[in-house]
Design brief:
Layout lengths: L6 H5 L9 H4 L49 E10 L9 E5 L15 E5 L5 E7 L10 E7 L6 E6 L19 E5 L2 E5 L2 E3 L1
Parallel strand pairs: 1-8, 1-9
Antiparallel strand pairs: 1-4, 2-3, 2-5, 5-6, 7-8
Bound molecules: fe (ii) ion.
Length: about 200
C-alpha cells in the first residue's frame, strides 16, 4: 500500500513535535489500540527481570529519546503505573534504556536513556525508536519503575510478533507491550502494576 505523504511525514524529524501521536494519527491509524483491560483489584504485579549489563545511573530527565536524524522505526510507548488495587501512582519514576536500531547501547553517553515521572493520573509517555536486535536477545526495552517512596521494579518490555521471542529465555508474555501501526509509527502501550 502506498501511503500518501502527510504533513507529518513531510515534516520529517518534526514527527514528535506536535503533542500526542495518538491525536495526530487518529485519522491515519490502521485501527485504534484495543481498550486497556480494566485493572482488577489483586492483579499480579508486573514481573521483575534482570537489569542486564548496560544500565547507567543518572540518565537525563526526558520523555523524548528520539533525536533528529536518529535511524530506526519511531515508537511512542504510553501507559500507566498502577498499584495492585488499581490506584494510579502519580510521581512514579520510570527510567528507560535501550539499544539503538542497530542493537547497540550507548555506554559512554546517554543516547536512548532517560527518566521521567508519571503525571497526576499515573501516566507516562516515551518517545523513542524501536530497538534493534543484538546477539542472544529478542527485541526489548529496559525499564526501572519506582513509586514515590516505594520499592524499585527492574524489568524489560517485549514486542509482539517477534520470531526471536520464542528463542529468548528471558522473554515473558506478561511483559509484551500492545502495539498498533500508525502511518510511519508504532504506538505501544504497557501498564505497570507495582506491589
Ligand atoms: Fe538489553
Amino acid at each position: 500500500m502506498i501511503e500518501k505523504p502527510t504533513r507529518r511525514t513531510v515534516l520529517g524529524a518534526g514527527v514528535f513535535a506536535a503533542g500526542s501521536l495518538f491525536a495526530i494519527d487518529r485519522g491515519a491509524a490502521e485501527g485504534p489500540l484495543p481498550p486497556t483491560p480494566a485493572c482488577q483489584d489483586g492483579d499480579e504485579a508486573t514481573l521483575p527481570q534482570i537489569e542486564g549489563p548496560y544500565f547507567k545511573p543518572s540518565s537525563p530527565e526526558r520523555l523524548e529519546l528520539f533525536e533528529e536524524g536518529m535511524a530506526g522505526q519511531p515508537i511512542e510507548l504510553v501507559g500507566s503505573v498502577l498499584s495492585r488495587t488499581c490506584k494510579p501512582l502519580a510521581g512514579a519514576l520510570l527510567d528507560f534504556w535501550q539499544a539503538d536500531a542497530k542493537g547497540q547501547y550507548d555506554n559512554s553517553g546517554f543516547r536512548l536513556r532517560g527518566h521521567q515521572f508519571t503525571d497526576a493520573e499515573g501516566r507516562y509517555r516515551l518517545r523513542s525508536v524501536v530497538p534493534g536486535l543484538y546477539p542472544g536477545r529478542t527485541r526489548h526495552i529496559h525499564v526501572k519503575v519506582q513509586p514515590s517512596g516505594g520499592r524499585l521494579l527492574t524489568t524489560q518490555l517485549y514486542f509482539p510478533g517477534e520470531s526471536q521471542n520464542r528463542s529468548d529465555g528471558l522473554f515473558r508474555r506478561a511483559l509484551l507491550m500492545r502495539t498498533a501501526k500508525n502511518a510511519g509509527w508504532i504506538a505501544g502501550r504497557f501498564d505497570f502494576v507495582l506491589d
